[in-house]
Amino acid sequence: MDRKSLGNPVFIVSATVILILVVLGAVMPVRFGDVAGTLFNFTTLNFGWFYLLAVFIITLFLIIIALSKYGGIRLGADSDRPEFPFFTWIGMLFSAGFGAGLVFWGVAEPMSHFFTTPFGDEAQTPESARIAMGYSFFHWGVSQWSVFALVGLVIGFLQFRKKKPGLVSTALEPVLGGKPLVKHSIDSLAVIATVMGIATSLGLGVLQMNGGLNAVFGIDNAFPIQLGIIVVMFAAYTLSSSTGLKKGIAYLSNLNLGLALVLMVFVFIAGPTVFIMETFTLALGDYITSFVSYSLRLQPYANGDWVEGWTIFYWAWAIAWSPFVGAFVARVSRGRTIREFVMGVLVIPPAIACLWIAVFGGTALWYDLNQGTGIAEAVDNDLTSALFQTFDVLPLTTIMSILAILLIFTFLVTSADSATYILASMTSYGSLNPPTAFKIVWGVLMAAIAAVLLYAGGLEALQTASLISALPFTVLLVLMLWSFTKIIRRESPPIKESELQRFKRMEQESREQRNRNS
Known about the structure:
It is built from 20 helices and no strands. With 518 residues, it is mainly α. 53% of the residues are buried. The chain crosses the membrane at residues 7-28, 48-67, 87-108, 137-158, 189-209, 221-239, 251-277, 312-330, 342-367, 399-424, 436-456, 462-482.
């Protein structure tokens, strides 16, 4: 590790803040949880509208920029081509973006909405099942990925086309300037938000793994077990991160996507296949027709807290994740055009997510509606059991449950592996080959903050942490949108291939004419 990287103020400040939070959470877990809860209530009550508006505007902006004349510009030189094959690229996006979270919520969310409806209607009815699927599609659809795509687009454009450091502060220079204090503050905030967002995902995955071990092997849902899972996971992603981006992360991403497809195909065939396809089609239609109303839905005329507990939590979680996922998506998307990047990121991972929810959530809904299996009630009692309650009504229960536990573990390792790489890069001046020691430091701190949050309050503490850390970064996202608008307007749209060929032909003809005249 060179001295320049070690003395980076971003590394020193962000690592110190996270370490202080770890110590406070470990020494005063009750007080830590109380303070976090107070901040949670303040944030949701006063700034929920800001999260919803920001994400909606970002989504519209990305669609417009992709369809505009700037869509053909590449994230790199005009001659660059994609670094990774399409399947590997999608696997990396999916694994880093929300693989473990989707496995957790793929059954838990629709069954939660089925048990307690978003609009206060009668629960556990065919109508409530339809609303549950449509809202689940919305939460895992385009909006969440638009946040990742914006950060990835700006960083990738600056890093590969303009040869600038892949840092959030660099993306905001056209708006906020380049003073060291401002840049270091922005990057430190991005790192802290990232760590809290990743800790949320790791904690959710650990809770679900513990739930799976309880369902399959009767192992208690207890903090010591969860701590043991974190230790094993830390060892695995530390080992993987040492192999580099093109080996460990790429291999694990392909394994994740392949294993996820195996599980999904099995449930699709073994479950109510026709019902799954029908509910997918109907939910997709409901998602599209309700997109604007769901995107801007709040409850100012009623004292409900459903939107705060679901939509605002998801958007805050995505925003907290966005510095990491955006930087990682940028890193693996070199050579792709803006249009290809935006459409790929906004369409393919959300489509896979919606299909996953239709297969797993749809199967659970069908069994509850038609055979009274009580999965929704069991999920209401313990969210971590959702996926495994569904496997209980299908054949090969034990085998599928073990494969699901393995999938959750590999997703967590991939996410943590990717995160250590990005965090190390963000704290070593945007280096594409950050020091291994930095990866280890961030690996330790991520594992520690996840453990502390589980110790301080479990699922509620995890949700609270991501939401609080996301609020200041939401402001930066809005500024980033403004910044990219200023940057891209200075860029000349690429010449279409046919025009370029015509130009070359005319130049060749002119050269030949000069030769004949001479």
